[in-house]
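Form 12-C: Joint structure prediction
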Amino acid sequence: MTTTEIHPAIVPNFDEETGGGRKLAIICSKGNLDMAYPGLVLANAALGEGVDTHMFFTFWGFDMITKSRMDHLQFSPAGNTAMHMPIGDAHLPQALAPLPGMTAMATRMLKKSIADLGVPEVPEFLDQIVAAGGHLWACRMSADMNHLVEADLRDDVEGIISASDFIEKTEGAQLLFI
Amino acid sequence: MPVTEIDSHQIHVDDEGFLTEYDEWDENLAVVLANRIGIELTDAHWRVIRFLRDDYRTQGDTATTRRVQAVGGVPVKEQFALFPKKPAKRMAYIAGLPKPHGCV
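Section 2 - Result
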């Protein structure tokens, strides 16, 4: 019988500060359902790693935080050549993509795939991000363009701020534009 | 896989110190593991740890913070309060489970 080598106890270091407090800024500029998720998944992951995370919603991304629109984000296969059919690995011909009903069908399919993974819908995902300590900011220009005010947005949006304000708030942050 | 000794138990761990053998864990060991990362276990912590253990046994994977909320019933905010900064990893470590593989 061989003797087992006993190593000194290994304790993970969960308090380690990488680069003195990492910070991440995510600019969400898309309002299509499929393009809402990358920012949400990354923000959630960053928060879970103790990273100070700020999200800035601008242009079409504004729909993600607008009460009247956030539950109705859609996914269209038009212009998306990577759209596969649910069976096999066939591509959806682009000529079919603009047909009536196609966006609704593709949206349903995508929502189901996401739900099957236990991943929440956009508003609930933002609830979770805020619960995890994430910060939500709305773009001043987008609000003005859409004639929207704070009352039209999720209550946990911390403010409608200018681009300069966001740049100032995220000094030293790593930045993602989606 | 390194073998390490904690509280006079010999246990298998990965390179970061997470237990690799489900059955080498018991609740006494959890107390020691928690203390090592600066956490004093309360009933609220135990509720999460026991959920993680049971869920792993049936699912074969460590629950993410999302799952601990959606299925385990412990809100994400509370998880961050109980297991600060990196809740998913801290919870897994104390529960003697691998880090979660899921993205959300």
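Section 3 - Comments
The longest helix of chain B spans residues 43-59. Chain B has five helices and two strands.
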